[in-house]
Amino acid sequence: MCIGCGLLVLVILALIAVTMTRKAWPALSHDGLRFFTSQRWAPNVEAFGSLAFVYGTLVTAVIALALAVPVSVGIALYLSDLAPRRLRGPVGSLVDLLAAVPSVVYGLWGVIVLAPWLSGVYDRISDVTSPIPILSTLFAGPSKGRGLFTAGIILALMITPIVTSITKEVFDTVPRAQKEAAYALGATRWEMIRAAIFPHSRAGMVGAVMLGLGRAMGETIAAALVIGSSPQITANLFRSGDSMAAVIANQFGEAGGLHASALIALGVELFALTIIVNVIARAIVGRRLRRA
Amino acid sequence: MVMGVEQQRRKPYLVLAPFVAVALLASACGGGDGAAGGGAGGGAGKEAPIRATLNAAGATFPNAFYEVAIAGYKQVQPGVTVNYAATGSGTGRQRLQDGVVDFAGSDGLVAAADVPKYKGEFVYIPTVAAPITVSYNLSGVSDLTLDADTIAKVFSRQIKTWNDPAITALNPGKNLPATAITVAHRSDGSGTTENFTKYLVAAAPNSWSLKSGSTVEWPADTQAGNGNQGVAQIVKSTAGGVGYVDLSDAKASGLQFAKVRNRSGNAVLPTVEAASAALAGVTINDDLSYNPLNADGADAYPITAPTWILVYKNQTDQAKGAAIKSFLRYVLGDAQKQAKAVDYASLPSGLQQKALAKVDSIVVPA
C-alpha cells in the first residue's frame, strides 16, 4: 500500500516530465542548445533563449532566501525559546496568516503600494552606495521600483511563514536535557543556541530552506506583477528582470505554435532546475553532516 | 466557541442553518431571473427557442463588448448559455484547433502554416473594432498631437524627453516641458500589442525596427504593466508617462489621449466615430479579413484594431450549430447598437451584411 503510493508519486512526476518534454520538443529542436545559452527572447522573430529567465529566477530566489532565512530563524528561535508562553500561540498564528494570503494579493500590493514607495528608497540607497565599488554596481539607480530586488522582497514575505513554521517545529524537538546541559556548562543564551539547538536542527533547517527555495523559484503571479518583465541579465538588482514562471504566466495566453512550445520548454527547464538545485543543496549539507 | 463541547455535540445542525438559508435564497433569486427572462424571450424572438451551451475562449480586447452581447442574448434565447473565457487570442485559437471550444475570439488572423491543424474549414466573422489610444500624462499639456514616426521613436527610446524637436514640431505653440518620457507597454502577450506594433511597422517603417507581435523586444529602460489596466496605471501614476491602452480602459482611468496624424495628414482623436471612419474605407477580403490599421480616410483614426470570431463552417451538433448561428446573428444585429456605449465601433453596414451572409453559410445538420 505505502510502496504503491510512493511509486504513484514517482510515476506522476515522470509522466509530467515526459509529456511536457514532448510538447516542448518543437521549440527545443528549433533552437537547439541556443535555447539554454542565449539571452535573447524574441517570440515575434522566433528567437528563444532562456538564460535571462534562469538568471532572474535564481537571483530573485537568492535575494528572497537572504532576506527571509535570517528573519525566519530569528522568529522560530523567539517562538521556541525566548517568547513568554502566552505569546507563542498568537505570534505563531500571525506568522502563519502570512501564508494564508493569496499570492496574487501580494503581487497587487507589491505593484500598487510597495513598488512606488520602494522607488524613492532605492534612489536614496543608490545615492549612498555610488562611491562604494561593488555595491555601486549592485544597487545603481534610478529605479521605478519594479525589478529583481522588489520581487525578491515579495518572495521573502511569502516564504517566511513556511521556513518559520518548519524551523520552529524542528527547534521544538531539541531535547531539553541538551539545552540544560549547555547552560550547566556556563553557556550564555546565544552560546546555548549555537551549541545545542543549531547542531541538532541542521538537517531540518536545510529542509525548511529547501521548501522555501522551491516556493521562491516557482512563485508565479506575485513575481510576474513586480519583476518588471524585461528579460535581461544585469548586475544591477534594482533594474527590471524576468523569471521563468513569470514569463510563462504572462505570455502563454497569447502564445501559439512555436512560442507556446518554447514556454513549455521553459517549464521543463524550471522543473529540472528545481531538482538540480535541490540535489546540490542536499549534497552540500550531506557532506557537512558527515564531517560533523 | 462560547458553547461547551457537550452542547456542540447535541446541535451540530445549527451551524449549517445559515449556509442552508443562504443557499435557498441564492437559488430563489436565480430562479426568479430565469423565469422573467423566459417570459420576455418567448414573446420577442422570431426564432424557435434553442437549448444549448456554447463554450468560447479568446481575445481580451473585445471582452467588454462580448459580455454585453451575451447578457443581451440571454433575453432573446434564455435556453442558450454562452461562456466566453477571455484567455487571450492565442489560447482561443489553440482551443478551437483542439476542438475544446465552439468558437474563438481572435484579434489576429491564423497563420497560413497553422490552418491545416484545424479540424476543418473555419470562417472569420468580424464583430467590432476599437481604437487603441496613445495615452500620456503631462500636466498642463492637453491636445497633444503625434504622428507615426514620432510614436515609433518614442516607444523605441530614440526620443527620450517631451521637449524633443520632433514632438515640438508637431505641436507648435505648446509649451512642452523637459520631462523624461517613461514608456509603458504590456508585460503579458497581447493582441493589443500586436495591432499597435503592426501599425508602427506599416506606418513608420523607417523609425520602427522592433517588428510586430504579441510580444516584442521592448528596450530595457521601459516599464511593463499587466493588462490594459496595468499600462493605464503606470501612465496615470508617472509624470511624463506614455503608453498604448485600449479606449475603454483609458477612459476608465481618466487618461489624456494624443491625437494621431492619419494617412491624410489630419490629427484625429481616438473616438468610436473615428474608428468607424477607419473601417469605412478598408478593403475587405473574401474571407472577411481586413486591415483597418493606418487606414485611408480624412477622419479615420489610424490605430484602429479589428477583432473576429472564428468558427467551424461545418457544424456537427444540430442544437449547438443553431445556437452559434443565432448568437452570431445577434452579435451582428441588435448587439451592434450597444457597442458604442462600451467604447467599441460597430461594423459599417456593408461589412455587417457580408458578415451576416457568412454566418448564413455555416452548415448545420438538420
Morphology of chain B? globular
Whole-number total of structural domains of chain A: 1
The percentage helix of chain A is: over 70%
Which H/E pattern describes the elements of chain A?
A: HHEEHHHHHHHHHH
Radius of gyration of chain A: 22 Å
Rg value of chain B: 24 Å
CATH architecture of chain A: Orthogonal Bundle
Distance between the termini of chain A: 37 Å
- Main beta sheet of chain B: strand number and arrangement? 9 strands, mixed
Distance N to C terminus of chain B: 63 Å
- Strand tally of chain B is 12
Describe this structure in words.
The complex is a heterodimer of chains A (292) and B (366). Chain A has 292 residues and is mainly alpha-helical. Chain A has one domain: MetI-like fold, CATH 1.10.3720.10. Chain A is built from 12 helices and 2 strands. Chain A has helices at residues 2-31, 34-37, 51-82, 85-100, 103-129, 133-138, 148-172, 176-184, 189-218, 221-226, 244-251, 257-291; strands at 41-42, 47-48. A two-stranded antiparallel ribbon of chain A has the order 1-2. In chain A, helix 3 (51-82) runs parallel beside helix 7 (148-172), helix 5 (103-129) crosses helix 7 (148-172) and helix 7 packs across helix 9. The model of chain A has no long low-confidence stretch (mean pLDDT 90). Chain B has 366 residues and is an alpha/beta fold. Chain B has helices at 5-10, 13-44, 63-76, 89-97, 148-155, 165-170, 191-203, 227-237, 247-252, 272-280, 318-332, 336-339, 349-360; strands spanning 52-58, 80-85, 103-106, 122-136, 145-146, 182-186, 223-225, 241-246, 256-257, 259-261, 267-268, 304-312. In chain B, strands 1, 2, 3, 4, 6, 7, 8, 9 and 12 form a 9-stranded mixed beta sheet that branches. A 3-stranded mixed beta sheet of chain B has the order 5-10-11. In chain B, strand 1 (52-58), helix 3 (63-76) and strand 2 form a beta-alpha-beta unit. The longest helix of chain B is centred in the first third of the chain and has 32 residues, at 13-44. Chain B starts with a helix and ends in a 6-residue tail after the last helix. Residues 1-8 and 29-44 of chain B have low confidence and may be disordered.
